[in-house]
Records
---
Amino acid sequence: MTKTTRNSAPAIEEAFHRHYAAIWGKERWHQSLYPALAEPTRYAALVNGYADFEHFWKAIDEAEIPRDELTELQFPRHRPDSQASSDTDVAKAVTNNSLVARGIRCFARATTENSPSCQAFPPPKAFGSDPAKLLAHWNLDAASALAASLLDIKPGDAVLDLCAAPGGKSVTLSQNLFPSYHATHSGLDAVELAGDEATGRLVSNEADGRRQKRLAENLRDYIPPQFLKTGYIKCTNVDGTSASASALAAGKGGYDKVLVDAPCSSERHIIHAHLKARATGGSAPEMTNWRPGSSKRLAEIQTKLLMTALKAVKLGGSVMYATCSIEGLENDGVVERMVREVAKERKKGVIRWDITVGFGDGLDGKMAQEALEGWAERTRHGWIVLPDHPRKGKWGPLYFAMIKKVGA
């Protein structure tokens, strides 16, 4: 660390706090949000349905974690508008768990004063009885699984994960595509799918070459090999901000669902790196390189990625935009930039479609409050999961907004 860096680090840290206190309010930032972000990240265990479920429990038992210490998380899902037409319907749906995402199984460890939220799950491992040696679970922030579950993937959907590395969300998205293959047939060389499953596809894309290589390795660890061999699940290396993004085409009509988990400021990572370096008298480059204006440059990239996703999705399809940033410019700000860009391209005649923002009657309004308030808080155009949420889940941060492509 140079003398200049050492001298500038306190000033940058002060500017960092000043910037985010202005966004979230001084009291909340200093008393709850920053302390929550500074805590170790809480992880949940996403169970891989393509591996034997008992292998997950075997990993838990080998780690000497009491099974009664685990709670299965219930993720809300996006229902069609017609399924709930009144407040009474909404209340019944929540009570009966018909708003709960199917096919995605995720467990968290109980939190008490004696068992903090940062307690780890064991590292994923494969067991000898699985012919494909698939890993039984993926450790991730449950907010990531929440965002993926809200896309409500169904068998037969064509799905694009535009910024997929390291792969946790792709693995989550894949769980509902081929349910008949859960924990079965993983040793077969071919896929014999019937019904809706036969048209299902997942393209898992990453622009950075090194990260894409790691993504491909992770998919091989979790996905039955026949899906990768036959192209039902692909791992691609395309820059989603460039003209070459047309290579992501899903064929006639485009994708049914697209996830854009965009690269972002990732403030929690900055905070953790800073605190770790400061503990040994050093300075983390993540903090010393931070500038208030960085979000403006990132927002340009994020908007391009979101526009690529909208052009790739079919009419009537959905795009989930997500970041792990707490900066409004990268969240609601990007959605607003996208709305302006769509309006501009429509006026020029470049595109002949429009968009709507939000979950519609299915998860907006009363249903949204009932289904999501236990996880997140509303923003202007979406939701954000924060670790100081009153329900004390300690997940996040994760911002997400749903955009639907509609006819003009």
---
Amino acid sequence: MSKLRILDDLPQVASAAADEFVARAKRAIQHHGRFTVALSGGSTPKTMHTILAERSAKNPKLVDWSRVQILFGDERHVPPDHPDSNYRMANETLLSKVPIPPGNVHRIRCENPDAAKAAEEYDRELVKVFQLKGEDQMPRFDLIFLGMGPDGHTASLFPGTTAVHEFKKRVVANWVPKFNTWRVTFTRPVINQSECVLLMVCGQDKVEPLREVMGQGSPDVYPVKYVQPTHGELIWIVDRAAAGALAQATT
């Protein structure tokens, strides 16, 4: 099931995403005692984190952080204190500002000079957090946050890279030629096993890829189109700048 919400601007998109975080956390904790969520990098998630932290400060009972397990859908091959680190951004804007136990935060240890080893280590972390049995069992997240780049990538599944067509592994190191660097990323099977995937898309540079993804664009050209939860929801929350003509079509 796929939903598309078009809001005015980035702050509204981030606020709506924060609403989803809170609502789904409460539902998951009530249903099975914990909330498993994967965060992403980018400017929209950064704003969402800030909103969540502010709301939690005002209402300490908003989210039971002791029952939240935080993971990451991808990471740059940099140490955790590097300005490009997704973990650093999440820690500075959210994790350090809410009462979440340190053991509930599971970062990708990309300070390892061998990106493949970092991916293997994070796969073992998934096995532990989700008590997975066997290499072919996929974790079922309550919520995975993703974004979309102007080139149509999501997580670190970039067009033309090997990770786009990886089906057996849960976490892989992916060489990205356009940036001349490694990334560590969830694979499609992990993403598509989630109870809900929430894609936040903002900015005028997303108009063309979003139109192609919503239309007849090839998923090999726009890997985000491969995001199709098998037994879950797919929610797009986009701003009007990114929506372009889609905004007119849905009004």
